[in-house]
């Protein structure tokens, strides 16, 4: 579904454009996959978020990532690259056309077998996972984040980090509901509830990084089950 809110960056466009053109160059095949995604209108993380992950992974050195929303495998391949050969990524995708494309990319480029693609809806796959991860990256259906986050947090180590992409709806997420187009009201309502829930939750540290359409960053400070 086209969401016009996503075409309003959370930061001024000139700053966004500066970040997109002055970041670290990506090595191949990531640069080619990023370009192919843009050419094919596949929604992948924007380049300023790629750069942020580059910096953060180099500082923190995580070795395992759980991802919701593979699309064609760009961010999964990026995480594998940033972690080095010891790193492992489990990534979940439900759309058959994306699964097929991701399988092709992983067969061609995941030569060190770092990535496990789980085909299906995250709501069905998450309860079957047993591993604990250093990092979770949620980049799937925005209205579902609030329902999936408790299951994701169960799978993240204490001290681990959850990143949740596109939480600001072009900066409109806290506008009065009457100013939001009718078909987007549900997404807005759920994102607002998500933001209010995580900032109020004991046991979590929350902040929003205004890159792309807003990257929510959570640290799991305590071993507990969360509900929002
Ligand atoms: C923004 S794209 C992911 C982009 C990818 N993370 C990247 O940056 O390369 C979102 C993907 O999430 C998938 N998706 C949405 N809701 C999902 C769900 N509940 N379970 C699994 N996949 C889901 C969509 O089919 C879509 O391919």
Automatic annotation (TrEMBL):
Q: Give the UniProt keywords, A-Z.
A: Methyltransferase, S-adenosyl-L-methionine, Transferase
Q: Which CDD domains match?
A: AdoMet_MTases (cd02440)
SUPFAM superfamilies linked to this entry: S-adenosyl-L-methionine-dependent methyltransferases (SSF53335)
UniProt-listed InterPro entries: Cation-dep_OMT (IPR050362), SAM-dependent_MTases_sf (IPR029063), SAM_O-MeTrfase (IPR002935)
Q: What is this protein called?
A: Uncharacterized protein
**Gene3D superfamilies linked to this entry:** Vaccinia Virus protein VP39 (3.40.50.150)
Any Pfam family the entry gives: Methyltransf_3
List the molecular function annotations (GO) for this entry: O-methyltransferase activity; S-adenosylmethionine-dependent methyltransferase activity
